[in-house]
């Protein structure tokens, strides 16, 4: 994926969130989301805080966030510090901050050289490249947009480049999910049949190490047919595995398919 495509997709994602926020009422800004302790405004504040951090600003200090039951690690604590800092601000102020920092970041990313963009970097998924970090940013922002849309009952942006790239990020974890978490046996295979709004088939084969492959040598051992939006909500930990079972059709080895659904959550 080119730098231009990644940056354009991230900027498009920010634009989609911006347009969504423009029409929200005060009550909608305060609506709770599927993320523990976070309102719609908190989701936006989290995005703002992350981009401020990437622009070089230190997160506010707030040791008390470590006592919150849903803060499990250093990243979660930093996120919560930004959220708490913006919690007393008005929705209009948080929206203004969002527009300001995303414009600044878009300009910086556009100006970045290809060499710097593809340079080694820490990412939330481990050591990789800055380019990978920005693809993860698309995924994170898109997931939070869907958190907001779910909370206020305004579905949208469930297909297109932002959704496609976000599903790419989940796809990168499926070998680990199927092979390690679901304990699929050697020689087995699993097909994820996403039925839309993003339609695609993703195959995982256990041949030594579990890996995503372009095609299988035969019929999949187990197949999960599931709407793409539901797939992302379960994988992102926004909905429990039970919702995945209710919305998916399991074929073949249903015990293996059930273990995969139960193991699907992978976000920190």
Please characterize this protein's 3D structure.
The protein is of the alpha+beta class and 268 residues long. It has 12 helices and 7 strands. The protein has helices spanning 3-22, 26-29, 40-54, 74-86, 91-111, 114-117, 130-152, 161-171, 174-181, 228-235, 241-247, 254-262, and strands at residues 120-123, 126-129, 189-195, 199-207, 209-213, 222-226, 249-252. Helix 3 (40-54) packs parallel to helix 5, helix 3 packs antiparallel against helix 7 and helix 7 packs across helix 8 (161-171). It is globular, with a radius of gyration of 19 Å. The two termini are 25 Å apart. The mean pLDDT is 96.
Give the rounded overall mean pLDDT: 96
Structural class category: alpha+beta
- Report the portion of residues in β strands: 5-15%
Principal-axes geometry comes out as: globular
Number of strands: 7
Question: In a few lines, what is going on in this structure?
Answer:
This protein is α+β, with helices and mostly antiparallel strands. Helices cover 53% and strands 14% of the residues. The radius of gyration is 19 Å and the shape is globular.
Question: What topology does this entry show?
Answer:
Blueprint: H1 3-22, H2 26-29, H3 40-54, H4 74-86, H5 91-111, H6 114-117, E1 120-123, E2 126-129, H7 130-152, H8 161-171, H9 174-181, E3 189-195, E4 199-207, E5 209-213, E6 222-226, H10 228-235, H11 241-247, E7 249-252, H12 254-262
Parallel strand pairs: 3-6
Antiparallel strand pairs: 1-2, 3-4, 4-5, 6-7
Helix pairs in contact: 1-5, 1-7, 3-4, 3-5, 3-7, 7-8
């Amino acid at each position: 994926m080119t730098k231009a495509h990644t940056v354009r997709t991230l900027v498009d994602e920010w634009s989609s969130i911006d347009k969504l926020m423009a029409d929200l009422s005060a009550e909608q800004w305060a609506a709770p989301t599927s993320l523990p302790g976070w309102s719609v405004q908190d989701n936006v504040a989290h995005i703002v805080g992350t981009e401020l951090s990437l622009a070089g600003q230190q997160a506010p200090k707030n040791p008390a966030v470590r006592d919150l039951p849903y803060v499990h690690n250093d990243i979660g604590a930093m996120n919560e510090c930004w959220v708490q800092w913006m919690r007393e601000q008005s929705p209009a102020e948080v929206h203004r901050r969002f527009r300001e920092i995303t414009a600044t970041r878009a300009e910086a990313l556009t100006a970045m050289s290809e060499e710097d963009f593809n340079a080694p970097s820490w990412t939330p998924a481990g050591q990789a490249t800055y380019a990978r970090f920005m693809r993860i940013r698309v995924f994170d922002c898109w997931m939070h947009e869907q958190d907001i849309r779910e909370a206020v009952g305004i579905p949208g942006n469930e297909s297109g480049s932002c959704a496609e790239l976000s599903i790419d990020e989940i796809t990168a974890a499926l070998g680990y999910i199927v092979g390690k978490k679901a304990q699929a046996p050697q020689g087995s295979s699993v097909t994820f049949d996403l039925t839309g709004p993003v339609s695609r088939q993703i195959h995982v084969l256990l041949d030594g190490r579990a890996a995503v492959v372009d095609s299988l040598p035969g019929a999949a051992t187990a197949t999960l047919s599931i709407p793409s939006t539901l797939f992302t909500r379960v994988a992102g930990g926004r909905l429990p595995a039970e919702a995945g079972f209710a919305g998916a059709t399991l074929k073949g080895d249903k015990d293996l398919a059930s273990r995969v659904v139960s193991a699907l959550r992978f976000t920190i």
